[in-house]
Amino acid sequence: MDDLDVLLTNDDGIDATGLQVLYEELSTVADVTVVAPDSDQSAIGRAISHSVTVRDHERGYAIEGTPVDCVVAGLSTLVPETDIVVSGCNRGANLGHHTLGRSGTISAAVEAAFFGVPAIAVSTYVPADEFAYGTDFGEVEVPAHQYSEAVQAARFLLERTRDQPVFEHADYLNVNAPITDRATGEMTLTRPSHTYRMDATREGDTVELEDNIWEMMSNGSVPDEDGTDRRAILNNKVSVSPLTAPHTTEHHDELDAIVGEYPPAE
């Protein structure tokens, strides 16, 4: 597979441990070029810049911009020969429908899909009990060995999808893996969970926003059924969700009728 060209990006930044271990693993089976943000761009979604500064890096290129900037710059001019984009490995899971537009990791995969290039987004789930209560997640360090299930899954999917028509039916794969200490070595096909538990509280001039799903996951009380990405992770399995990028819907008879009545009668 030495002739397979991989563009590797992320949203945690080019010096993130997750990207480094993924680069090392994928480089054993493909020609990997990193095009990643020069600093942490987590949860920035599909934000894009008008122009970015690029500098050479020992593994490829560092971009002063977002994950989407990296994909656009990479596929357009820096690594135009790319066969597949891999985004990750993210420190923290990207589970559920509500994360799909929020995550920089997933947004890089979505951007690749609009270029017609297949992509794999890879993240690892860090349970709340792995870090001290009250600790900001941005300060949580995940050692390299705890990414091993995620990077093994990424390599496996990279190799196996190359000669199979997987990306004729999906634009990208959203992959989430448990940290190594909890993994079972099992992989399952999933769909994003619909469970949504965002909340906000106000105190004076400040409104605190919180995603309560993480606390629910820590005690196993998430009401997600079998077949969903979060249920797979709670069962310590690698979750693989095949997804499409265009935001479209089926024909809507009721809306069709409403549109046909415009402009309204005087």
TrEMBL record:
The keyword Ribosomal protein appears for this protein: no
Name of the protein in question: 5'-nucleotidase SurE
Family that this chain belongs to: Belongs to the SurE nucleotidase family.
Keywords associated with the record: Cytoplasm, Hydrolase, Metal-binding, Nucleotide-binding
Catalytic activity: a ribonucleoside 5'-phosphate + H2O = a ribonucleoside + phosphate
Cofactor descriptive note: Binds 1 divalent metal cation per subunit.
Domain Survival protein SurE-like phosphatase/nucleotidase positions: 6-194
Compartments reported by the entry: Cytoplasm
InterPro entries reported for this sequence: SurE, SurE-like_Pase/nucleotidase, SurE-like_sf
PANTHER family reported in the protein's UniProt record: 5'-NUCLEOTIDASE SURE (PTHR30457), PHOSPHATASE, PUTATIVE (AFU_ORTHOLOGUE AFUA_4G01070)-RELATED (PTHR30457:SF0)
Molecular function via GO: 5'-nucleotidase activity; metal ion binding; nucleotide binding
Organism annotation: Halovenus aranensis
GO CC list: cytoplasm
EC number(s) from the headed UniProt entry: 3.1.3.5
Segments passing through the bilayer: none
Binding-site positions, a divalent metal cation: 11-12, 42, 90
Keyword Cytoplasm: yes
